[in-house]
Specification:
With 198 residues, the protein is of the alpha+beta class. The chain folds into two domains: 11-164, Glutaredoxin, CATH 3.40.30.10; 167-198, no CATH class. 30% of the residues lie in helices and 23% in strands. Strands 2-1-5-4-3-8-9 form a seven-stranded mixed beta sheet. A two-stranded antiparallel sheet has the order 6-7. The longest helix is centred in the C-terminal third of the chain and has 17 residues, at 149-165. Belongs to the peroxiredoxin family. AhpC/Prx1 subfamily. Pfam families: 1-cysPrx_C, AhpC-TSA. One of its GO terms (biological process) is cell redox homeostasis. This is 26 kDa antigen.
């Protein structure tokens, strides 16, 4: 389990948001000012994956506004990533997504994040990494189960709120809601006002 630990660092070949291929893409050099989301997906040119990748890309500005970078990873080559980016959405491609796609050909990154399945592909793992490299949230889905990208934005907001205010975020917390002090009194105060909304 990686939550509360430092994210495993990696340097690998990647296709950047502008389509450029670089051989020395480093995780820690590409964590945003406030953090990063690293998400794994099984393979290019498959079925659930493009819906998730397009959903991340459509919300890329929302992550960027929060100071959080997005990084996609699969066991495909940089050439496969590039070809999929160049394939129009209406033809099963992902279009020119707004974040880098890392080529994990050796499968070592997937192993390090403990998402490698059957020694062949990565499960749908998503990792929210704080600015200092600490993994704050992780969720891993089986292959047929697509992710909710809006939930990841909510988790980014909870991380940023707790980092800024030192309070905790109760169930279903949304940006703009009040937090909870992590004391017996704080819990009692919060629940007396909000228990009926849970």
């Amino acid at each position: 389990m990686l939550v509360t630990k430092k994210a495993p660092d990696f340097t690998a070949t990647a296709v950047l948001a502008d389509g450029q291929i670089v051989e020395d893409f480093n995780l820690y050099e590409n964590i945003g000012e406030k953090g990063a989301v690293v998400f794994f997906y099984p393979l290019d040119f498959t079925f659930v994956c493009p819906s998730e990748i397009i959903a991340f890309s459509k919300r890329a500005d929302e992550f960027k506004e929060r100071g959080v970078s997005i990084i996609g990873v699969s066991v495909d080559s940089q050439f496969s990533h590039f070809a999929w980016r160049e394939t129009p959405i209406e033809n099963g491609g992902i279009g020119r997504v707004k974040f880098p796609l890392v080529a994990d050909l050796s499968k070592q990154i997937s192993k390090d994040f403990d998402v490698l399945f059957g020694e062949s592909v990565a499960l749908r793992g998503s990792f929210l990494i704080d600015a200092d490299g600490t993994v704050r949230h992780a969720v891993i889905n089986d292959l047929p189960l697509g992710r909710n990208i809006d939930e990841m934005i909510r988790m980014v907001d909870t991380m940023l709120f707790t980092n800024e205010h030192g309070e905790v975020c109760p169930a279903g917390w949304q940006k703009g809601d009040e937090g909870m002090k992590d004391t017996t009194e704080g819990v009692a105060e919060y629940l007396s006002k909000n228990a009926d909304k849970l």
